[in-house]
């Protein structure tokens, strides 16, 4: 099964997300840049995503709002830098709940053997920005993941 | 968790010696001498690392007779894993939905290339895990 790998190194204001998809890269790329497709998968199922605009071209702007079951709305917006392509899709990302803390996202889509590896690098202005973004920007009612300490220590040790 | 505390925890975890110390303490409390043993480091250098870990709330220290014992505090680490778990869940679930969409799009294109693939996939939106 394909697994989403998220790397958030301590002390470095970046988040790297990698994921393999069983589809050609043009299609995976399209699912990330065509608002009609994006709206169908972005966010967990209990979060409704409404896209205001999604102009996937150099200088184009985008904005969407995600609403949870309690009616809390979370707005995000940004600008595309360069015409998006599977080799480089670069855009800024800003959570409207904390204006001014802008993150730069760069996505690449690499095909191998009919599968596509997606890699997204998010660069924040500071480690604090990154931590706050993860902590509050995508706030979810998640259950306590229980005793993950041993697992974490193993991961810390391996890194 | 407050962001400043999270920063302290991440700052403390940023150093490989401190991570190794935490791993050692996961097996039980230890003295400074015991913690210093695996490293080519003086006890005062290890004590400095312990101070950083203590300030981040990752360990606590108490005295038994003349030895000062360090003890792992699990809660801040658990908060850090929960912090990332929340974000992980967001993307796990998004990408699982994208898997479904990509499968539907490819099936739709094979069956009927003229059909709007977005419409084909919308029927799957309500699917639960």
Description:
The complex is a heterodimer of chains A (159) and B (129). Chain A is of the alpha+beta class and 159 residues long. Chain A has a single domain, classed as 2-Layer Sandwich (Alpha-D-Glucose-1,6-Bisphosphate, Chain A, domain 4), CATH 3.30.530. Chain A has an eight-stranded antiparallel β-sheet with strand order 1-2-8-7-6-5-4-3. In chain A, a hairpin with a 6-residue loop joins strand 1 and strand 2. Chain A is globular. Chain B folds into two domains: 70 residues, Winged helix-like DNA-binding domain superfamily/Winged helix DNA-binding domain (Arc Repressor Mutant, subunit A); 46 residues, no CATH class. In chain B, a hairpin with a 2-residue loop joins strand 2 and strand 3. In chain B, strands 1-3-2 form a three-stranded antiparallel β-sheet. Chain B contains six helices and three strands. Chain B has 129 residues and is mainly α. In chain B, helix 1 packs antiparallel against helix 4. The longest helix of chain B is centred in the last third of the chain and has 38 residues. At the A-B interface, strand 2, helix 1, helix 3 and helix 4 of A face helix 1, helix 2, helix 5 and helix 6 of B.
């Amino acid at each position: 099964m394909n697994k989403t790998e998220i790397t958030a190194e301590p002390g470095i204001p970046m988040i790297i997300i990698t994921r393999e998809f069983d589809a050609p890269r043009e299609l995976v790329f399209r699912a990330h840049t065509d608002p009609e497709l994006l709206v169908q998968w972005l966010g967990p199922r209990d979060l409704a995503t409404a896209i205001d605009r999604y102009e996937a071209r150099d200088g184009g702007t985008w904005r969407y709002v995600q609403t949870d079951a309690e009616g809390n709305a979370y707005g995000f917006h940004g600008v595309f830098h360069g015409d998006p392509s599977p080799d480089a899709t670069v855009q800024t990302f800003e959570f409207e709940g904390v204006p001014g803390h802008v993150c730069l996202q760069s996505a690449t889509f690499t095909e191998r053997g009919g599968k596509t590896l997606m890699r997204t690098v998010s660069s924040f202005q500071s480690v604090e920005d990154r931590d706050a973004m993860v902590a509050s920007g995508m706030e979810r009612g998640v259950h306590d993941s229980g005793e993950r300490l041993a697992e974490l220590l193993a991961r810390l040790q391996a890194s | 968790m407050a962001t400043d505390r999270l920063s302290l925890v991440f700052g403390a975890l940023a150093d490989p010696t401190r991570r190794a110390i935490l791993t050692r303490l996961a097996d039980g409390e230890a003295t400074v001498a015991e913690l210093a043993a695996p490293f080519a480091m003086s006890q005062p250098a290890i004590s400095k690392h312990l101070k950083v870990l203590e300030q981040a709330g990752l360990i606590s220290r108490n005295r038994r007779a003349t030895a000062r014992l360090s003890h792992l505090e699990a809660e801040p680490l658990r908060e850090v894993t929960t912090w990332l778990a929340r974000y992980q869940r967001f993307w796990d679930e998004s990408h699982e939905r994208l898997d479904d969409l990509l499968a539907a799009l490819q099936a739709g294109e094979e069956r009927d290339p003229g059909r709007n693939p977005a419409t084909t996939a919308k029927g799957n939106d309500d699917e639960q895990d």
